[in-house]
Design brief:
The structure is a homodimer of 630-residue chains.
Chain A lengths: L4 H4 L3 E2 L5 E3 L4 H22 L22 H18 L3 H16 L10 H5 L13 H19 L3 H16 L16 H12 L2 H13 L6 H8 L29 H17 L3 H17 L31 H18 L2 H15 L17 E2 L13 H9 L8 E4 L2 E4 L5 E6 L5 E8 L6 E8 L3 E8 L7 E5 L2 E2 L3 E3 L2 E8 L3 E7 L3 E6 L9 E6 L2 E6 L19 E5 L6 E11 L9 E3 H4 L1 E10 L11 E2 L2 E2 L2
Parallel strand pairs in A: 5-9
Antiparallel strand pairs in A: 1-4, 2-6, 3-22, 4-5, 6-7, 7-8, 8-14, 9-13, 10-11, 10-14, 12-13, 15-16, 16-17, 16-23, 17-21, 17-22, 18-19, 19-21
Helix pairs in contact in A: 2-3, 3-4, 3-6, 3-15, 4-7, 6-7, 6-8, 8-9, 8-11, 9-11, 11-12, 11-13, 13-14
């Protein structure tokens, strides 16, 4: 086995296990994920029978029957607990993980097949409905779980089972005679196989991933042939672009269909583009990136604006109150951004990655770690709340596997360069390309303050380029080395300092972090004439909990000064924004539905904004991100 | 027969036949209605078989079968043509009208029953589904047609048939043993019977109207009993408030359900309230008025915001792009307002009447008179257009009967007073309460200009009070008698001048008519932070046809000066509003979905607004009434 990434790709992410996050923002959330979310999700999986389903003792007539995607829920929890265990060893949890992974492996069939639903509920249904049955999707999540479990514990129980399962899948699917020329309606297996290939270096794994990707959308369409073979009556219920199966992947140019599926596909495409060094695929990824992030993304990094089909719709169609913006889709956007970022370390990707991470993803989980958003709207009348669980539990399980790995999005390495993408108080231990150990210590109160002090401690003086991301939101910054101001070359959103670094060298980066009011592209009719508040990477929102008048009736004075103030007692300690907004005098409206502007008499009203990611942690009430101009 | 109105009610409207409209705004529309709309509607009714259906020669299996509400379409056209004929005699049309009314009368059954569908299609279905079958609704429209036909021509063919039909209905419905205790799911018969009563003075007609009104919503609910009797399976499909049948009428306090039905009911309630001089009913009308007009009405006078159920929803729920605001509902609101206005001549009612008439009703018909809106949204992406006809043709037929009668909304009389509600160049001939003839000539360019000169020519000097409406939109006015400035007592929105009027006395009223930007109640979230343009009674809108940049991307600078300018070549001659609005520089947005406000660089862009009632008469494109503040 080998790690092909560093040699083949320009940049390689530093694994999360090498970054010890010690800040006041993420570290408590990672701890809550460990102490509350992972146990809560386990409790739900256990109580709902999703774990015990792997015993294969379900009998027809018993309710609930193991659902087609239960395997993936358990797998994502296994992945999350594995990642967390890698950061924070715990013998008791290691044992539980051992038991669950053994149980999963025990469900494997003699031919290598491993899927609960199609073993006990529909044993004759295997591979007969790739479009809807999530079979390869579940396989992909089991594979990601196996890889995480192996990396965290060195144990091969689950990995060996999945290697056999992958072998079985390889024997079923492909272009060779006698094989099914299918692919999954919900992408996931592709990115999982590419992860596996990076571990094993086994060309068969790359080939299988490539097959699934390349076959997608080819004519004659597999889903249509498969539906006909099943004798499915009537017209096609769902258009092929819902599954991103309307065109071969190189011909895609618009982010389309079910947003989570799209993001997992694009992530795998980006992986394959680099493994295969394929310019046509790189170009397709570029088009899809621009479609998704320049025309179809919420300010929070949420994607997929419509609940109907959980999908992408049209350019600039970004309604706020009905925004779907599924947590999983924002997580998928982070995956896609992170892959593209490794190609040439372009800050555009890191900007979106950070936007989604700090806003539309983190909003997915409550401060107490026990309630989760599936949808992440940007406006609410007060009736949208996190829930403890969902029948379709993809979002909670995606969050518990993402949070332990946040540190893994902070750094990348290439020959002769270390890139810093995210700022967060932490200590990273890594080896430079020549093998020399290096410790990087970040001291910062980011995202509350914009000043960062990095202390570099190579084992010996070492020449390399330090690439420091200057976030897209930042318009003024200062840089110093050992307290001496320096000018740095700017390349694709990164300040680049090339020198021979001495142990203990300190770099300070001061990112000006004023409160900004932000506009959306005028094509976004839902936001036209409105402003949103942002400071640093954080999008802010107004909640009724902080206001006397409903936030649905507060306008923003464009030139109003809003002051950031850290309140250690608010929502675990946050920088809130304080100032005055505008409302109209309610007395004027007692007997009027419409009034001349000059008669409505605006008046000032206190305004307080909190980070969007923390909304709905207090009393229910209206919430707004985009406010009209006063 | 008698006309009870003047003696029993405080104010009596002057019939439209006594007001000769000679202005440049309404007169051409009335002429187009005569020359284009009435023939176009006739052509549709004829071509679609709706007129010939009265031959009763339909045989099962032939398509289309006469629909349950076809009778009403023909009836409303008969009413419209009758009213127009009363203004503008035309032997050829009188003959056509004679033929159609004879044909209708010929369809009457020996027992007096008169309904095509339930005579030829469902002969066993008579009165078995009052909730849905529109049977009494059709009877009401036939009755209104008969009254109009009689008033216009003196011919009794249709009126006699309808008197027999009313007698038959009276024998079927009521609280007496053996009668059905039902009422119609779509109100209309009630107001028609009250109109009939005002002509005949026959207490039986008043009693029947009163029965239908009072029985509505009583327990046990007739619609539920009737549905059970029909053996209708399953739960109730539609809530009772859709039919305004959830409560007895005196207990209603919110405008609810299907908006046209609600308006027709409230109109009849207002009629009955005055006939019966019933304070509880007056109070109910007052509550319903406030609910409808202070919390549930568009700026254009449109009501019923939801396409789902064509109905009222909740307070302040007034979405612009999905606004239903059915033309018929705005017409119904005019009826309701006009009835309440006669009670004590309160300008609040006239303000809403004028608002609906000049905006949300007139928008219903194209300038060429041949295309009609059913829905009247306040924002469009460019895909909403008038159509030549609808299967459910209530709106075109309602427009053709309203337009000839516009002059009838201008004046009311009471003992010792003449009230002027609407300003439009015209000549009215009337008799004062003592029988003295009076001619009132209005010279004005209203609604384009706010100055009005009234010349009063009584046959002899006469003392009475002239009540001149000071519209709610007007904040400054001047009044003169024979060119001498006078002060007038102000009462409920009217300037009152009591004196002995000499033949030829001239009153000039100068209403300041600046361009106003209007705000909506802050509870209307769809308009929050937005402004609309109004000048005089006219609501304005922006259309793409007048702009280089899409009007969906133009914001209004709150203090921008907009200049009214009459363009004789635009849309038949209109005062448009010209000025500059604000857009953002598109170059800034080529590679950005979100930008700090200070970077988006607004720039000025020419802005031109046209009266809302005239939108969609040119090239298709986006339209906006409410614009965000720049």
């Amino acid at each position: 086995m080998r790690d092909s990434l560093r040699s083949r790709f320009h940049f390689t992410p530093l694994p999360f296990t090498q970054v010890k996050v010690e800040d006041d923002f993420w570290a408590p959330r990672i701890a809550v994920n460990r102490e509350r979310s992972l146990p809560a999700v386990y409790h739900q999986l256990k109580a709902g029978g999703r774990i015990d389903a792997f015993r294969l003792d379900w009998t027809p007539g018993t309710e609930p029957a193991p659902h087609i995607f239960w395997d993936s829920d358990v797998a994502k929890w296994v992945e999350g607990l594995s990642c967390d265990l890698a950061l924070h060893p715990d013998p008791e949890r290691a044992q539980l993980l051992g038991e669950v992974t053994s149980l999963i492996a025990s469900a494997q069939q003699p031919d290598g097949y491993l899927n609960v639903h199609f073993t006990v509920v529909e044993p004759k249904g295997r591979w007969s409905n790739l479009r809807d049955a999530h079979e390869l999707y579940c396989a992909g999540h089991l594979l990601e779980a196996a890889l995480a479990h192996f990396r965290a514990t060195g144990k091969r129980t689950l990995l060996e089972a999945l290697l056999r399962y992958v072998g079985h899948i390889d024997s079923v699917f492909g272009r060779e005679p006698g094989k099914k020329r299918g692919y999954c309606g919900h992408e996931e297996i592709e990115l999982a196989l590419l992860k596996l290939y990076r571990l094993t270096g086994d060309a068969a794994h790359l080939r299988l991933a490539q097959y699934f990707l390349e076959e997608r959308g080819q004519e004659p369409n597999y889903f249509l042939r498969e539906a006909a073979a099943r004798g499915e009556a009537g017209p096609v219920r769902v258009p092929l672009d819902y599954y991103q199966a309307h065109l071969p992947i190189r011909e895609h140019s618009e982010a389309t269909g079910h947003a989570v599926r799209a993001m997992y596909l694009y992530t795998a495409m980006a992986d394959l583009a680099r493994e295969a060094n394929d310019p046509a695929l790189v170009a397709a990824c570029g088009r899809l990136w621009e479609s998704a992030t320049l025309r179809r993304m919420y300010l929070t990094g949420g994607v997929g604006s419509s609940a109907h089909g959980e999908r992408f719709t049209a350019d600039y169609d970004l309604p706020n109150d009905t925004a779907y913006a599924e947590t999983c889709a924002a997580i998928g956007l982070i995956f896609f951004a992170h892959r593209l970022l490794q190609r040439n370390c372009d800050g555009r990707y890191a900007d979106v990655m950070e936007r989604a991470l700090y806003n539309g993803v983190l909003s997915g989980v409550s401060l107490d770690g026990e309630r989760f958003f599936y949808e992440n709207p940007l406006a609410s009348n007060g009736s949208h709340h996190r829930q403890g669980w969902y029948n379709c539990a993809c979002c909670p399980t995606n969050l518990v596997r993402l949070l332990p790995t946040v540190g893994g999005y902070a750094y990348s390495l290439s020959d002769g360069a270390l890139a810093v993408h995210l700022y967060l108080q932490s200590e990273a231990r890594l080896s430079l390309s020549d093998g020399l150990p290096l410790t990087v210590r970040q001291e910062t109160r980011y995202p509350w303050e914009g000043s960062v002090r990095l202390t570099l401690t190579p084992a010996a003086p070492a020449e390399f380029t330090l690439r420091l991301r200057i976030p897209g939101w930042c318009r003024r910054y200062a840089l110093a080395v050992n307290d001496t101001s320096v000018k740095a070359r700017r390349q694709r959103g990164y300040a680049c300092l090339t020198r021979t670094w001495q142990p203990g060298d300190a770099v300070t980066l001061d990112l000006a972090m004023p409160v900004e009011s932000v506009e959306a592209h005028p094509g976004v009719r839902h936001d036209f004439g409105r402003l949103a508040l942002q400071r640093g990477p954080l999008v802010y929102c107004l909640e009724d909990a902080d206001h006397v008048v409903s936030v649905a009736q507060i306008a923003l004075r464009p030139n109003a000064k809003l002051s950031p103030r850290f309140d250690p007692n608010l929502l675990g300690g946050v920088v809130m924004l304080e100032g005055v907004g505008q409302e109209t005098d309610p007395a004027r409206w007692e007997k009027a539905l419409y009034l001349p502007r000059t008669r409505s008499r605006p008046r000032l009203t206190p305004l307080r904004a909190i980070p969007y990611c923390l909304w709905d942690n207090r009393a229910p009430g209206a919430m707004r991100v985009w406010l009209p101009r006063a």
